[in-house]
Amino acid sequence: MASTDKSKGEARLRATLATIAPGTALRDGLERVLRGNTGALLVLGHDRLVDSISTGGFHLDVPFTPTGLRELAKMDGAIILDRDANRILRAAVHLMPDASIYTEEAGTRHRTADRVARQTNHPVISVSQSMSIIAVYVGDTRYVLEGAGQILSRANQALATLERYKLRLDEVSGTLSALEIEDLVTVRDVAAVAQRLEMVLRIAREIEGYVVELGTDGRLLSLQLDELVSGVDVERELVVRDYLPLGRRSKGVHEIRAEVEALSSGELVDISAVARALGLGGPEHLDTAITPRGYRLLAKVPRLPGAVVDRLVEHFGNLQKLLAASIDDLQIVDGVGELRARSVREGLSRLAESSILERYV
Q1: Which of the following CATH numbers is that of domain 2-145: 1.20.58.100, 3.40.120.10, 3.40.1700.10, 3.30.420.10?
Q2: Is the pTM of this model over 0.85?
């Protein structure tokens, strides 16, 4: 439950950051306020609860413009916008949140912003006149916006790290394919691939956050990210399906994935902890031999529908039986005619040959 709440909180923060990313009208307005050295307090959202803690000011309900925000910020009091920051609803409002709500903020504007965000569950933005910073409050989270240059620098470092990890992932994934064909897979080999897959996806999620913050400045970064992680999530799904433990008490694919995702950074570097999350046992089982069902390699056969893959795996049971199957054997499976059987046979043969060559040449 705590993990779910954390994920929801991160999603809300990311959505709010997207609303104020570079290139948006709201970000333009905030930067105008910052350059004008006047400060501001904005509430993104309006309902009865917001009304109950608001006094004074005046109603506007006019379209949002950066210049309008800049002018209204010259007055004392908060500015209330709709959730999408498309309209300015009220201005010069005095906010009176519950004083018993805990906050670590010291300044009046930041303290009010923190309490309003916690009490109303609406995002609140505070532009500090003295410190020249823009702080975003979403629930219990406080986030200080940085300049595009600083974010881009960190994002490029993360992207370089992702490239190295992706290269290593490709190596261990290729090794696993060769071992699967030779029927030499151990728990350690599977856990190593699952470990690298999760590491790559975690770095990718961090870069996705930078892309959101950069707004229009993050387009090229987004294209590079998409190219690097294309197919990684699918690969993780196939690995889990290939080695999902059998038995009444075994967990489903989604449960196994959730357990791997829940591993801390320290646990993720421990190969035995990854194996345990996969349901494949602890340290004493790392060298235990296991056989894949064949989902990973069948997914690499061109133009082979997922439903047919499922039926092939269900019929033959494991990859070794699939590799040994003749065209006639393959045709027995529902939905596999002569042409498709020949395509599967030739596809698996080519994969087997290329995997062995890549490993030993």
Answers
A1: 3.40.1700.10
A2: no
